[in-house]
C-alpha cells in the first residue's frame, strides 16, 4: 500500500465515517430481513441471515475500535503499524459491501415492504443512538484537544440525550383522528373502528330512544388506552339510521395507580345508513397491498354504493399496528366516511407478522368467519381461507396452525342451515381451504345453503370463473402492474351484477349472474 492510500484509509474522517456506516449496516439489514427475504435463509441454511447480521455487528465494533485507536494516536496515519492500515482497508471494504447489500435489499423490497423496513429500523434507532453516543464519549471525545470543540460536542450530546428522553416521555405527535371511522359488521353487531395518531382510548357517543350512550373500547370494564386503533361495539339497532360521534383521550402512560393523559378529541357527527332492501350496490375491494391511492382512483369511477366488502390483503403483513391503522382502518374509514357498513374477509397477508394475533381484537371481531344478514335482504357467509401454504412452510417460522383453524371453520359452516334467503359467500381465497377434503366439504355446504357465487380476491386479476372451482367464483381484482381494479356488486331480484373498472375508469368486466348461478350476460 502506498503512503497516499495508507493516509486515506487511516485518515481520521475516513475512519469515523466508516465506523458510523458500519454501525448503520446491521440495523438496516435486520429491518430488511424481518420484512422479507426468507429466500436467503432458504438458499443456504436457516439462520444464514443471523450470521450476516452478527458479521455486520462485529464489523461495526471493529471499525469503532480502529477509529478510536486512530483518533487517540495522532501519528498513526504516518507510522501506522501495518496491521492497522490493513485492518482499516478490510473494514472499509466490508462496510462498503454491507452498504451495497443493504441498498440492494431495500430496492428489492419494493415500495410496500421498504416502508415497513423503515418502521423496523426506526424501532432500533434508540439502540443505535445509544451505541454511537457511548462510542463518541468513550473513544473520540477524549481525543479532541480543542476546548471549544469539546464544549460543542458535549452540548450536542447532552441536547440529544435530553431531547431523546423528552420525546420518549412526550412523543411530539399532534393528536388527531387518522380518518373517519369504519363501521364493521362483525356478525353480531357493529364494531365502530377508528385510528388515532398516537395511543389513547376510544369511545362512541349517540342517543337512542331518548337515552344518551357513551360506549368505550374496553375489556371487562377496563378502558383500553395503549392502542392507536379503537373499536367500540354497538348493537345494530342503536346505530341504524342514527347519528353518532367518536372521541378519544390521548393516553401517554397507564400506571398501576393513576395515569398520564393528554387532550381529548371528538369527531364531527356521522349519519349512519344501514344496507336495506333488495336493491343494493356494494363496493368490493381486494388485494390493495398498501396501494390505497390507486385503489381510491378506481373506486371513484364506480358511482354510488351503500356498503363495502373488504376482501383482504391490505398490506404484505401485519407486523406493526401502523400497518393495520393506515392500510385497513384508515382506508376503510376514507372510503365509507363512517356512514355505511363494511364487511371484512381476512386475507392471507393479514395472518403474517407479530400484530396479526391482535388484529381481531383491535377490530372488535370475535371471529374472522361469521355470517351477517344485515346487508339488505341477503345472507352473507364470510369465510377465512387464512394462509395459502402448508403450516410448516418456512415463511411462517413455526407460527401457523391453520389446518386446525380451517377444520373448525368447516365444522362451523356445516352447522349452518339453509334459510331461504338469497345467500352469497365471501372469502379472500377462492380455494376456501388448501386441504382438499375441507374445501370439498365447504363447497358441498355452499350448495346446500343455496349460494350461487363466491366473491373472492387473492389472485390480483379480475374474472368470473365458471370451471376452476365447484361454485361460480368472482375474482375481484386488486392491484397489479401499477393499475388497480375495483368492483361494484349490484344485488337485486334479477341477480348479481358484477362491474369492474380500473384506475383510469375503463370497464374491465360487466356481467350479470342469476340467483341460480347461471351467467345471464
Ligand atoms: Fe392473498
The residue-averaged pLDDT reads 91
Total strand count, please? 23
- Structural shape: elongated
Low-confidence stretches: none
Verbal overview:
- With 521 residues, the protein is α+β, with helices and mostly antiparallel strands.
- The chain has 3 domains: 3-169, no CATH class; 177-272, Immunoglobulin-like, CATH 2.60.40; 274-513, Metallo-dependent phosphatases (Purple Acid Phosphatase, chain A, domain 2, 4-Layer Sandwich), CATH 3.60.21.
- It contains 13 helices and 23 strands.
- The strands form 4 sheets. Strands 1, 2, 7, 11, 12, 13, 20, 21, 22 and 23 form a 10-stranded mixed β-sheet that branches. Strands 14-15-16-17-19-18 form a 6-stranded mixed β-sheet, with no helix packed on it. Strands 3, 4, 8, 9 and 10 form a 5-stranded antiparallel β-sheet that branches.
- Strand 20 and strand 21 (483-492) form a beta hairpin.
- Helix 4 crosses helix 6 and helix 12 runs parallel beside helix 13.
- The chain is elongated, with a radius of gyration of 28 Å.
- Residues 287, 313, 347-349, 428, 458 line the site of fe (ii) ion.
